[in-house]
């Protein structure tokens, strides 16, 4: 790598506040906030809105939408498109 042009690559904690889940990894992301990790060291922390601990696909709580029923209900309510009239 060419020196002086790349951001620092260091340990960072990513925290999912909704699920109460955090993990330590290496990243170039920066943050002014820090958190004390299990090893006793303080690391920058980045709060994320969703992670594998709270995403419906990974937790198995995803819903299957009945899109065909929605389209039919819309067509009954509002009729077909204007181009077909």
Automatic annotation (TrEMBL):
> Would you name any one GO CC term?
ribosome
Pfam families assigned: Ribosomal_L31
Top-level division of the source organism's lineage: Bacteria
Q: Please report which protein family the annotation says this sequence is part of.
A: Belongs to the bacterial ribosomal protein bL31 family. Type B subfamily.
**What gene makes this protein?**
rpmE2
- Subunit and partners: Part of the 50S ribosomal subunit.
Q: Which NCBIfam families match?
A: L31, PRK01678.1
Q: What species is given as this protein's source?
A: Streptomyces thermoalcalitolerans
Q: What is this protein called?
A: Large ribosomal subunit protein bL31B
User: Is Nucleotide-binding given among the entry's keywords?
Assistant: no
Task: List, alphabetically, the PANTHER family matched.
Answer: 50S RIBOSOMAL PROTEIN L31, CHLOROPLASTIC (PTHR33280), LARGE RIBOSOMAL SUBUNIT PROTEIN BL31C (PTHR33280:SF1)
Question: Which UniProt key words apply to this protein?
Answer: Ribonucleoprotein, Ribosomal protein
């Amino acid at each position: 790598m060419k020196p002086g042009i790349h951001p620092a690559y260091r340990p960072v904690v990513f925290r999912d506040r909704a699920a109460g889940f955090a993990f330590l990894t290496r990243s170039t992301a920066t943050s002014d906030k820090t958190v004390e990790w299990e090893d006793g060291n303080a690391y920058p922390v980045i709060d994320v809105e969703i992670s594998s601990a709270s995403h419906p696909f990974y937790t198995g709580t995803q819903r299957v939408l009945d899109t065909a029923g929605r389209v039919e209900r819309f067509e009954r309510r509002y009729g077909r498109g204007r181009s077909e009239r």
